[in-house]
Design goal:
The structure holds 2 protein chains of 2 kinds. Helices cover 33% and strands 13% of the residues of chain A. By secondary structure, chain A is of the alpha+beta class. The radius of gyration of chain A is 22 Å and the shape is globular. Chain B is 36% helix and 18% strand. In chain B, helix 1 (15-26) links the parallel strand 1 (2-11) and strand 2 (31-35). Classes of the chains: A alpha+beta, B alpha/beta.
Chain lengths: 257, 660
């Protein structure tokens, strides 16, 4: 085990052809009464391994220091940098320019309040959604003795909960959602997935009656038109289609009662 | 002028900050959290591999307890840590995991029966106990004697942050998002809150609070190559520094993580090596056993990172167009394991490198990762210099990591410190010391001072470019204040950083909007970051020894006789171009574990004169207490439990250590 053949391919070595990239960026500052939404074009030279994080920072340095956009982790795990990339919502930080044509159109995620340019207020939306859905674990025992052994949980179940807990609230599913465009209080796939996650969790004290109260209407699971773009664009590949279908069946069952 | 009053102002919406706010709310106080970004996007989410807590549920964790965790942590710190604080931490960590389990964190759980794991490159079968089935599982991490790192696949920080973020919402903690503290409001002895800028509108607001807590994370972005998120710019440390009163502890103690992917510096977790991954050189040779026969890939991070750079210097690095690197090989773990327990790693490799880590090796090189130093506080989290100012988590130095932090101890520290400091803050504001008695002139002047600084940047007509200065600073830090340090390099670094600091006072902007203006943000942050960078570089220059992550090629030995001291950096006057350094000695005679060899890394060090005396004293004490249980022995040697908030005292139950 101590010696092995070098890795099959050294991934950082192949030379990518250098292109001139043209970024068509939607610009607007809603707080500036003079501002009119418009597209501005920036040209930069492509570099090996270039992501949209690198490209946008380069545009800011070389062309326009006022260009607004959001990045935090730049590693695809925090969900800050959702934007519409050539018509499709996605995480900019982990999108490589080599996978895109030389003309790249960038727009802010729709459905969220615009801060400026590519920056939108997903945080405000997510907090409001979370408050409406009471999107936190309602503890059966709110004051456990922390000195004692933790409660046991079936290992498979813990894994299944984590599968749904992987959502990073990037907002791509909301931006891609037809219902969210028509109903401003629609909780979106992010909200429905969240409820599904707590419903699966035996530590949560709520029953289907309680969940029906928060998602049993057109702003909840019955608002979904099953277009399922949410499922297609989710950067974490969450099983959104299955979860929404499942929740709808459960909630429809409650409605018949 | 807009003023918002509250009981507790928490600056920073990561795990430490949110947990403080929840603690204050539970005690019946109001708390407001300020956050640059939506709190669930904080850098806490990036902690992948796990959190250390001595639950001892898995077979390879049997026999683990607070004593073993304590010893690992102190050795990891290279004896720089405050041992009483380490004791407080290791006793609270199991409670923190259990609290988080109750709050909904889907911890990975133990499965009874046989399972195959990779240890030291070999397949080994481990049999998990029936009675452990369904309890929280642990994995192996560097610098630990037992498998102690509790985890949620490799998304531990994410799962923790969402659970704690959810409970903050449940507790009704308001989080004021996209708000940035620019300065603390204080009168030289008491902190009263902060002047805060709205990053959307540019409006300044004074937040006045009985207690102010800095929980802003680390300062990784003063370096060019770092695993840290772009918001980890050391601004919280700078806020404290700029009071001229509070000090920063051990800023020269900077950790470099062995496995940043090359060249982007994005982290892949230590869990890769904990789960059996190997480091290989250009020839495919597994080199770590040559250097570290005891712990191999799982020595502490400072040691592994140094060995990797040493191996590259000897000409064994793999060459690429971006420079040299080494390989992390996790192919031997198998696809099923990677897709189950290392899925973020798989995603990162796929998206950023185009690599399938189940088949190919991952190019890695050490990258800046963690700031052991921070706002100096006592064991309650309060600044000894500025009453009412608290700090917790990576932003603080209370000081549990000393000169090197163990993997899995940081995300553990965030919640543990949040729990402990949250209680002490509540105690503080319930006591007469917490009474607020602030002249409104102080508030007005503080806001006016910040307004004037912003106006100078926006309209002062300065000629220097903020982004250029920032990039130069990052380059100087990466080139000269990195893993291997020398007096000459550090002198040059201090010299250049000073010049950059002076230039940063002449920054002018091309964009003059006071609203969402990223150039303005870069400008005022760069001015602050340079002060933090100077604390790191001057501290490193002054410290003529090697300890933990601070390695001086010209002074390669740890020197307890001279340097068993904590560096305290302060910035006396805003017009100064250098911090003032002072030192606080560590008392060997009160240590539970006197300095010695860490069990990995260099065996060569200079003893403190008290060390043999304390060692023989402890030997006699242990002989006298022969037969007493471990808790009694510990209490005799170094009592600490009285330092903890009452609600977090008490022993921790384990399968093998049942509570009555």
């Amino acid at each position: 085990m101590n010696d092995a053949k070098p890795a099959p391919a050294a991934p950082t070595t192949p030379a990518a052809p250098l292109r001139k990239l043209h970024f068509h960026v939607l610009r607007h500052d809603p707080r500036d009464p003079q501002s009119i939404p418009h597209t501005e074009v920036f040209e930069i030279e492509e570099a090996a391994g270039m992501t949209l994080f690198i490209a946008l920072n380069e545009i800011r340095e070389q062309h326009d220091a006022s260009l607004a956009f959001d990045f935090v982790c730049r590693a695809g795990i925090c969900g800050s940098c959702g934007m519409v990339i050539n018509g499709r919502p996605g995480l900019a930080c982990r999108t490589l320019t080599k996978d895109l044509p030389a003309d790249i159109t960038l727009a802010p995620l729709p459905a969220f309040e615009l801060i400026a340019d590519l920056s939108v207020n997903t945080g405000k939306w997510m907090r409001a959604m979370s408050e409406r859905l009471e999107g936190w674990l309602h503890m059966k025992d709110p004051d456990p003795d922390l000195r004692r052994l933790e409660q046991k949980m079936d290992p498979e179940l813990a894994d299944r909960i984590y599968e749904l807990d992987r959502c990073i609230e990037c907002g791509c599913c909301v931006a891609a959602c037809g219902t969210a465009r028509m109903r401003k209080d629609f909780v979106g796939a992010v909200g429905l997935n969240r409820v599904a996650r707590f419903r699966l969790d035996p530590r949560d004290a709520r029953t289907d009656d309680d969940y029906y109260d928060v998602i049993g209407d057109d702003d909840g699971v019955f608002g979904c038109m099953s277009l399922l773009a949410c499922h297609d664009v989710c950067p974490k590949d969450l099983p959104l289609a299955t979860q929404i279908a499942f929740m709808r069946r459960k909630m429809a069952g409650m409605a018949w009662k | 002028m807009k003023v918002i009053y509250t009981d507790v102002l928490v600056i920073g919406g990561g795990l430490a900050g949110l947990r403080i706010a929840i603690g204050a709310r539970r005690r019946g106080h109001d708390a407001i959290v300020l956050s640059l970004v939506p709190p669930k996007r904080s850098h806490s989410a990036a902690a992948q591999g796990g959190m250390q807590a001595s639950l001892g549920n898995v077979a390879k964790g049997q026999g683990d307890n607070e004593d073993v965790h304590f010893e690992d942590t102190v050795k990891g710190s290279d004896w720089g840590a405050d041992q009483q604080v380490v004791r407080m931490f290791v006793n609270t960590a199991p409670k923190a995991v259990r609290e988080l389990a109750a709050w909904g964190v889907p911890w990975s759980r133990v499965r009874q029966g046989d399972r195959e794991v990779i240890i030291n490159g070999q397949k080994v079968t481990i049999t998990e106990r029936t009675e452990a089935h369904g309890l929280v599982a642990q994995r192996d991490f560097g610098g630990t004697k037992k498998w102690r790192t509790c985890y949620v696949s490799d998304g531990t920080g994410h799962a923790m942050l969402f659970a704690v973020g959810d409970q903050a919402i449940a507790s009704g903690v308001p989080v004021h998002e996209r708000k940035e503290a620019l300065a603390l409001i204080h009168d030289g002895t008491r902190c009263y809150g902060a002047v805060v800028r709205d990053l959307i509108t540019g409006e300044l607001t004074a937040y006045v609070a009985k207690a102010t807590a800095i929980a802003t994370g680390g300062a990784g972005r003063v370096y060019r190559v770092t695993t840290n998120a772009v918001i980890c710019e050391g601004i919280g440390a700078a806020l404290a520094l700029e009071t001229g009163v509070a000090s920063l502890g051990n800023m020269e103690a900077v950790q470099f993580h062995p496995t940043g992917i090359f060249p982007a510096g994005i982290l892949v977790t230590e869990g890769c090596r904990g789960d059996g991954g190997l480091l290989r050189d250009a020839a495919g040779h597994r080199f770590m056993p040559d250097y570290e026969p005891e712990k191999k890939e799982l020595a502490s991070r400072d040691v592994v990172s140094r060995r990797m750079e040493e191996h590259i210097r000897k000409g064994n690095g793999a060459k690429s167009r971006f420079g040299e690197h080494l390989w992390l090989d996790i192919t031997l773990l198998g696809r099923a394991h990677i897709e189950h327990n290392l899925r973020e790693v798989k995603e990162i490799c796929h998206y950023f490198l185009g690599v399938d880590p189940a088949k190919e090796w991952i190019p890695v090189r050490p990258a800046q990762h963690y700031t052991m130093g921070g706002v100096r506080t006592d064991h309650t989290g309060q600044s000894p210099a500025l009453r009412g100012l608290f700090a917790a988590g990576e932003a603080a130095c209370w000081d549990m990591h000393g000169f090197n932090r163990l993997g899995g101890n940081s995300v553990a520290e965030t919640v543990v410190a949040g729990m402990i400091v949250g209680e002490f803050i509540a105690d503080f504001i319930e006591s007469p010391k917490g009474d607020l008695d602030i002249p409104t002139s102080l508030i007005r002047e503080a806001v006016a001072a910040e307004r004037a600084k912003l106006d100078a940047l926006l309209t002062g007509g300065g000629s220097e470019r903020a982004d250029a200065i920032k990039v130069e600073m990052q380059q100087v830090m990466t080139d000269r204040v990195g893993i291997f340090r020398t007096g000459a390099d550090l002198e040059e670094a201090v010299h250049r950083l000073q010049a950059l600091l002076l230039r940063s006072r002449q920054i002018g902007l091309r964009t003059h909007s006071d609203g969402p203006n990223p150039e303005l943000v870069t400008a005022y942050r760069t001015q602050k970051m340079l002060k933090v960078a100077l604390c790191i570089a001057t501290g490193a220059l002054a410290r003529t020894e090697s300890r933990g992550a601070h390695f001086r090629e010209d002074f390669p030995r740890r020197d307890d006789a001279q340097w068993l001291q904590r560096t305290l950096a302060s910035w006396k006057d805003p017009s100064d171009a250098l911090p003032c350094l002072a030192y606080e000695p560590l008392d060997v005679m009160s240590m539970e574990l006197p300095p010695g060899w860490r069990g990995y890394g260099a065996k060569d060090y200079v003893d403190h004169p008290d060390t043999p005396r304390r060692a023989s004293e402890l030997e006699q004490l242990r002989a006298r207490l022969d037969g007493a249980d471990r808790h009694q022995v510990q209490t005799e040697i170094m009592p600490y439990e009285h330092l903890l908030p009452e609600s977090f005292r008490g022993r921790n139950e384990r399968i093998d250590e049942r509570l009555p």
